[in-house]
Automatic annotation (TrEMBL):
The keyword Cytoplasm does not apply. This is Thioredoxin. Pfam families: Thioredoxin. PROSITE patterns: THIOREDOXIN_1, THIOREDOXIN_2. Keywords: Disulfide bond, Electron transport, Redox-active center, Transport. It comes from the Bacteria. CDD domains: TRX_family. It comes from Streptomyces cynarae. Residues 1-121 form the Thioredoxin domain. The gene is trxA. InterPro entries: Thioredoxin (IPR005746), Thioredoxin-like_sf (IPR036249), Thioredoxin_CS (IPR017937), Thioredoxin_domain (IPR013766). Belongs to the thioredoxin family.
Length: 128
């Protein structure tokens, strides 16, 4: 049984709103690296039952892929407290995925939010 949630444009916002920590795998069935990454992702989902593991089929959900600027797949994204804290294309090996999850767990989200708001303020000052 899979521990992953299929994310669609209908349930994406609610899933991100309802969960403090979500991993998102952007993938497609025709993508070889995506198929190689799938069992690694499933294993991580089994080993981290306290986290939400979502999958976005970029073929079925092109709007979501476009909204996040996904240009190559697989792309892994991690969202904590509604802030994207990690996004990287490419199939990660198990050890690298475990490391990324550990790093994301260790983030001080107050510091992350502070850095994000400082960047936004700087962009506004520069007229961006």
């Amino acid at each position: 049984m899979s521990n992953t949630v299929e994310l669609t444009k209908e349930n994406f916002d609610q899933t991100v709103q309802d969960n403090d920590f979500i991993l998102i795998d952007f993938w497609a069935s025709w993508c070889g690296p995506c198929r190689q990454f799938a069992p690694v992702y499933e294993k991580a989902a089994e080993e981290n039952p306290d986290l939400v593991f979502g999958k976005v089929d970029t073929e079925a959900q092109p709007e979501l892929a476009a909204a996040f600027g996904i240009q190559s797949i697989p792309t892994l994204m991690i969202v904590r407290d509604r802030v994207a804290v990690f996004a990287q294309p490419g199939a990660l090996p198990q050890a690298a995925l475990d490391d990324v999850i550990g790093q994301a767990r260790g983030l001080d989200m107050d510091e992350v939010r502070k850095a994000v708001s400082e960047q936004q303020a700087k962009a506004e000052q520069n007229g961006e």
